C-alpha cells in the first residue's frame, strides 16, 4: 500500500484523508488494514438479520447502541400501512428487525412512526449526519451522507456485524478523486443532471477504489438536498464514497435539528468543521472537470447509470463505441429497453413516472416536482407515483399543500419508503412497462421484472408526466400552453 | 470462533469437481433472515438423490469433506460457508478453491486446505474402502491423514494463525479493545448519538 495517499510523507491533505486520519484507532502495518472508528451506524431490515444472528451465536452485545439507529424502508408498503404486510418474506424481515432492535436495545423507527423513512433521508433529517464523522450502513447508497463532509459508505452483512460488535471496521485506505464542476447551472438543470453527466463521463467503474470529492462553484451553489443527490449516486460510478466540504449551507441545514450539536458543542463543532477543507496544495490521485454552464437536462437510455445523454440528443449508435465491451453492453441495453439507436430521446413515450427514492425524495425535490405540475394534468396514459422519502417529508409536504397539487395533477400520493426504486414492496413496474424515475439504478428488472427505467431529475419527471414522453420544463415553455399533453 | 489445532472426525468423499456455491446452497435459501440453521440447505438439490453421499448413513456426523478441483467457485454468498459449518464440517480438503469462498471460510472458522489432485484421489479410495473412517487434521503441522495415508496441505499463514487462535475478524478487532476504548474516551461531545432520543 506504499503509494496510497494516507502513507505519503506530506502534510497537505484532502478532505477525505483528514476525516480518515481523525478516525484511526489502529494504523495497519505491513499491508494489514487500518482500524477505523465509526461514528454513526444506520440499520434497516434487509441486510441486518444475519448480523444480529451472528452476535447472538457468539454471545456478543452491540457495543454502542447509542451510535446506532434503525428504520424500516425497503419492504414497507406505501399504501394501507396500518394493515399487516401481505408479502410473507417482507413481513418476516420487518418483524425480525423489530425483535432484534428490542433485544439489543437499538432505537427503531417502525412503519407508522413519525421518523420512519428511507434510512438515507432519516439520518440527515434528524441532524445525526454531520461533517467530519464516519457513517456506515448495510446499503450502498450510504454515500448520500458524504454531502455533509462525512465519510460515508455502504458495507456488507459481515461488516454490519463487525460494526455492531466493535464500532470499528478494518479498512484499506482509498485513493482520492476531485470532481470539479465550475460555472452556473441554467434554470431547469439540477444536481441530478450533474451527477448523471459525471457518471456518463467517467463510466460506472470510473470511481472504483476512490473517494470522490465534488468541488467547484456549481457544487458550492447547491443546496444540501442537491449535494445529497450527487453524493448518493457516487456509488453508481463505482466509488467507495462521495464528499462535499462543509460550508455555511451545511451549517444552516443542520442548525436546530434534533440531534445537531447545541450551545458550546455547536461552537466547538463549527471550529473543527471549518478545518475540513482540502488543503490548497493537497494532491488528488485523479481529477475530473465538468462545465456546468453547458449542461442540459440529462437522462439515461440504457441499463446502467453511465448510459446517458442530454435530453435533446438521440440514442447513440452502439457501433460508435470503440470499446467492444461498451458496444456489446449498448446493444444488449437497447434490446432490453426496446429502443433503436438514433431515436431522439424526447420521442420516448413512458407508461409510468416514479418520483421518489433516496436520490430525490426530500422536500426540495417534491417542491421542484410540484412547481412544474401545479395547475396541470398528467398525460392520460401515464401512471404517476409520488413517494416521499420519510414520514416527516410527507407531513411537511402536506403542510405546504403539495399533496393537493399532486392529487389534482393525477398523481398517487403515497407513504414513505424505498417503493418503486427497487420494488421489494408491491410498487413495481409490469413487464415491458417504461418508467421515468428519479431513482438511481436503471438495471434490468430493478423496478420490477421486465420493467424499463430512464433515470431523470424531478423536473424532467414532472415534465415527462405532463407530456407523456421524456421532456424537460424547457419543452413546456416552448409550447407555452397549460395543456401540453395534447402533443404527447 | 473455536480454536483449531488438531482434530479427528469422520471423513466424507465428495467425488465432484467445480462445485460452485449455487450447488452448495441454492439461491432460494438466501431469503432467510438467520445466519445459522442452514444444515438442511447444504447441497439441497443433490440430496434429493438417495444415492448422494450425504444420504449415506455411514458418513453420519462427518466433519472433514474431501472434494474435487475448484470447490466453492461462483457467487460470493457467505451462506455457502454457513451451510457447510452448520452441517458440521470443520474442514474441506480439495486441490483448489474459489477465492471468495476461501476468504469467507477463513472468516467463519472453516478450514480449507489444498492437497494435490492425485492425493485427493487416494484419500477418496481409502475412505470409500472403509466408509466411516476418520480423518485427522493437524493444523500446526499442516497435515491431513486417513488411515496410513498422510499428506501435507497448504493454507496461508495469516488464516492459519487466525484459526489456531480461534479469531474471527471481530475477535481480532476486539484484541484492540483497549485502543477502541481509548479512542472513545477522546470522542468529542459534539459528535452524534442516537440515544437518548431527541
Ligand atoms: S431508495 Fe432505493 S437506492 Fe435508496 S436505499 Fe432504498 S432501495 Fe436503496
Written overview of the protein:
The complex is a heterodimer of chains A (488) and B (198). Chain A has 488 residues and is of the alpha/beta class. Chain A has helices spanning 15-21, 49-58, 88-104, 119-125, 157-166, 191-202, 217-220, 224-232, 248-254, 263-273, 324-337, 363-373, 391-399, 402-409, 458-467, 473-479, and strands at residues 24-26, 34-37, 40-43, 68-71, 107-109, 134-137, 151-154, 168-171, 175-182, 210-215, 241-243, 286-291, 298-300, 308-310, 352-355, 383-386, 412-413, 434-437, 452-455. In chain A, strand 3 (40-43), helix 2 (49-58) and strand 4 form a beta-alpha-beta unit. With 198 residues, chain B is of the alpha/beta class. Chain B has helices at residues 21-24, 79-87, 99-108, 117-129, 157-165, 169-174, 177-185, and strands spanning 6-14, 64-67, 91-94, 111-114, 134-138, 143-146, 149-152. Chain B is globular, with a radius of gyration of 20 Å. In chain B, 34% of the residues are buried. The A-B interface holds A 25-26, 35, 37, 39-40, 49-51, 53-54, 57-58, 60, 65-69, 89, 92-93, 96, 107, 127-130, 133, 157-158, 161-162, 165-168, 170, 258-259, 261, 265-266, 268-269, 272 and B 1, 31, 33-36, 78, 107, 168-170, 172-174, 176-177, 179-180, 183-184, 187-195, 197-198. Iron/sulfur cluster (SF4) binds next to loops of chain A.
The SS-based structural class of chain A is alpha/beta
Name every ligand kind in the structure: iron/sulfur cluster
Strand composition percent of chain B = 15-25%
Helix proportion of chain B:
25-40%
What can be said about the biggest beta sheet of chain A? 5 strands, parallel
Query: Mind summarizing the main beta sheet of chain B?
Result: 7 strands, mixed
Amino acid at each position: 500500500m506504499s503509494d496510497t495517499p494516507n502513507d505519503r510523507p506530506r502534510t497537505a491533505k484532502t478532505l477525505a484523508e483528514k476525516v480518515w486520519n481523525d478516525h484511526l484507532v489502529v494504523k495497519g502495518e505491513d499491508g494489514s488494514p487500518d482500524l477505523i472508528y465509526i461514528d454513526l451506524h444506520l440499520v434497516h431490515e434487509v441486510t441486518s438479520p444475519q448480523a444480529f444472528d451472528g452476535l447472538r451465536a457468539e454471545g456478543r452485545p452491540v457495543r454502542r447502541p447509542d451510535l446506532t439507529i434503525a428504520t424500516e424502508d425497503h419492504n414497507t408498503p406505501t399504501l394501507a400501512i396500518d394493515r399487516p404486510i401481505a408479502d410473507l418474506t417482507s413481513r418476516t424481515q420487518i418483524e425480525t428487525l423489530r425483535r432484534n432492535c428490542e433485544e439489543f436495545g437499538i432505537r427503531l423507527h417502525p412503519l407508522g412512526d413519525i421518523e420512519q423513512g428511507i434510512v438515507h433521508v432519516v439520518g440527515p433529517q434528524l441532524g445525526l449526519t454531520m461533517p467530519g464523522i464516519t457513517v456506515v450502513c448495510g446499503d450502498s447508497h450510504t454515500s448520500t451522507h458524504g454531502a455533509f463532509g462525512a465519510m460515508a459508505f455502504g458495507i456488507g452483512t459481515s461488516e454490519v456485524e463487525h460494526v455492531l460488535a466493535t464500532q470499528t471496521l478494518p479498512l484499506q485506505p482509498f485513493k482520492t478523486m476531485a470532481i470539479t464542476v465550475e460555472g452556473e447551472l441554467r434554470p431547469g438543470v439540477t444536481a441530478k443532471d450533474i451527477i448523471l453527466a459525471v457518471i456518463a463521463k467517467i463510466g460506472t467503474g470510473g470511481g472504483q477504489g476512490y473517494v470522490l470529492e465534488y468541488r467547484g462553484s456549481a457544487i458550492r451553489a447547491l443546496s444540501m438536498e442537491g449535494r445529497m443527490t450527487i453524493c448518493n449516486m457516487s456509488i453508481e460510478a463505482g466509488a467507495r464514497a462521495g464528499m462535499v466540504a462543509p460550508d455555511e449551507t451545511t451549517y444552516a441545514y443542520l442548525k436546530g435539528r434534533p440531534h445537531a450539536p447545541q450551545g458550546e458543542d455547536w461552537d466547538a463543532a463549527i471550529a473543527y468543521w471549518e478545518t475540513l477543507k482540502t488543503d490548497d496544495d493537497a494532491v488528488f490521485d485523479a481529477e475530473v472537470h465538468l462545465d456546468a454552464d453547458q449542461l442540459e437536462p440529462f437522462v439515461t437510455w440504457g441499463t446502467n447509470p453511465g448510459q446517458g445523454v442530454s435530453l435533446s440528443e438521440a440514442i447513440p449508435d452502439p457501433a460508435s463505441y470503440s470499446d467492444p465491451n461498451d458496444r456489446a453492453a449498448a446493444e444488449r441495453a437497447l434490446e432490453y429497453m426496446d429502443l433503436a439507436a438514433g431515436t431522439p430521446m424526447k420521442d420516448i413515450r413512458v407508461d409510468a413516472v416514479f418520483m421518489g427514492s433516496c436520490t430525490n425524495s426530500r422536500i426540495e425535490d417534491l417542491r421542484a416536482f410540484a412547481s412544474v405540475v401545479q395547475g396541470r394534468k398528467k398525460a392520460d396514459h401515464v401512471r404517476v407515483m409520488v413517494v416521499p422519502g420519510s414520514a416527516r417529508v410527507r407531513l411537511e409536504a402536506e403542510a405546504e399543500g403539495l399533496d393537493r397539487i399532486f392529487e389534482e395533477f393525477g398523481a398517487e400520493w403515497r407513504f414513505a419508503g424505498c417503493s418503486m426504486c427497487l420494488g421489494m414492496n408491491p410498487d413495481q413496474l409490469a413487464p415491458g412497462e417504461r418508467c421515468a424515475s428519479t431513482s438511481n439504478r436503471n438495471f434490468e428488472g430493478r423496478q420490477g421484472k421486465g420493467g424499463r427505467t430512464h433515470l431523470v431529475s424531478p423536473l424532467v419527471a414532472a415534465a415527462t408526466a405532463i407530456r407523456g414522453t421524456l421532456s424537460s420544463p424547457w419543452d413546456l415553455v416552448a409550447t407555452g400552453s397549460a395543456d401540453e399533453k395534447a402533443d404527447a | 470462533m473455536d480454536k483449531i489445532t488438531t482434530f479427528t472426525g469422520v471423513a466424507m468423499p465428495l467425488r465432484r469437481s467445480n462445485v460452485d456455491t449455487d450447488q452448495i446452497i441454492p439461491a432460494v435459501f438466501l431469503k432467510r433472515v438467520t445466519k445459522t440453521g442452514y444444515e438442511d440447505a447444504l447441497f439441497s438439490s443433490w440430496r434429493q438423490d438417495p444415492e448422494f453421499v450425504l444420504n449415506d448413513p455411514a458418513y453420519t456426523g462427518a466433519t472433514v469433506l474431501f472434494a474435487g478441483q475448484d470447490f466453492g467457485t461462483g457467487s460470493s454468498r457467505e451462506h455457502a460457508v454457513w451451510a457447510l459449518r452448520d452441517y458440521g464440517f470443520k474442514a474441506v480438503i480439495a486441490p483448489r478453491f474459489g477465492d471468495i469462498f476461501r476468504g469467507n471460510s477463513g472468516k467463519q472458522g472453516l478450514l480449507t486446505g489444498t492437497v494435490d489432485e492425485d492425493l485427493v484421489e487416494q484419500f477418496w479410495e481409502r475412505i470409500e474402502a472403509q466408509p466411516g473412517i476418520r480423518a485427522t487434521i493437524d493444523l500446526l503441522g499442516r497435515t491431513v491423514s486417513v488411515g496410513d495415508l498422510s499428506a501435507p496441505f497448504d493454507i496461508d499463514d495469516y488464516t492459519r494463525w487466525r484459526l489456531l487462535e480461534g479469531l474471527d475478524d471481530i475477535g481480532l478487532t476486539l484484541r484492540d479493545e483497549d485502543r477502541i476504548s481509548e479512542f472513545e474516551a477522546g470522542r468529542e461531545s459534539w459528535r452524534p448519538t442516537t440515544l437518548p432520543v431527541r
